[in-house]
Amino acid sequence: MFPGLSNKVVLSSCSQSAISTTVLNAIDAYKDSLLQYGMEWNLWMEKVESAKVNFSKLINCEPEEVAILSSVSDCISSLLHSLKLSGKEICLTELDFPCIGQAVLAQQTKQNFKINYVPHQQYTIPIESYDDYINSNTILTCVPHVSYYNGFKQDIKELARISHQYGSLLFVDAYQSAGSMKIDVKEMNIDILVTGMQKYLLGIPGISFLYVKKELADQLAPSTIGWFGQEKPFDFNLKELHYAQATQRFNTGTPPVINAYAADAALSLINQIGIEKIEAYLNELSAFTLDLTKEMGFEMASPQVVSMKGPTTAILVENASQVEKQMLNLGFVVSARKDVIRIAPHIYNTKEDIKNALTALKGFQTQG
Ligand SMILES: Cc1ncc(COP(=O)(O)O)c(C=O)c1O
User: d(Cα 300, Cα 353) in Å, to the nearest integer?
Assistant: First the structure.
């Protein structure tokens, strides 16, 4: 099902997963629709809706609680524009992806609020730290579920308890976790969650999902909007503003149709396999990777306990981006970030794949 694997080992799900025939066929179906019918708006919108329904099934929410945008950066910016932040505080972590920090800083040029950064300790954050950075004036706490740098995983349910205890909303960036582990927004008590399709969700870039729980979304008046976020877009009324129900109000213009075709196919595949099954297998690969890296004497940037990490394992190497290229020449797709090489497997990988990749990586290190 993953034709790209015939001549290489793809271990880059923290960046881009291998592409399945299911997704490739969906992209072709959109091409065929353009060629054969020219314009099939009803079908295209059905695909967008179906992607949304599949995503809401995956995270256990109602489809009306999910908006479709183009990137996680878009999602955080739209959300921040909808909040009254002046005089308040926002809590961020030093492990957030840069686009989260940058969007908050850009917002600070418009509204006057304070930012508190929860520091990391060797790229992990002890849960007790949060109490020092969230207080009763905190309106929003932004956390990554899993760190893009080293796969460190946070206890979201506990973070929801801590932030809610101070009256803060919890925003979860799930781009490095969605598709690799179970996420239940209701059970975890998450207020806002964002993710895209390119990483463990087995899709392509160009589409992202913004979950805002209904009770909250209904109170928000976003200012980054579009006609697809209106109650009756096809009334074509430019003199009135009527937000659509719940999180639909965060939709902007014409949705990214080809990306929705791909997303719908990838999400169907994930839901069909079952996220629990995927999580169990990836935990097995994670344990295997930790054991082997220890045995082989690698210097690690990831936590050494499976329960503290997602499937990504980060190994400290010199000249990481150069090593990424050299690994590709040997047929291994791995991903460099700063001073690490990330090994990020998915369901199509075997222990043998990981062993072979680590052996190749060790070769570069021995050569210096
Ligand atoms: C955790 C996390 N958040 C956000 C992003 C950026 O997402 P986008 O490019 O869709 O804005 C990434 C990209 O690598 C990421 O890993």
Answer: 19
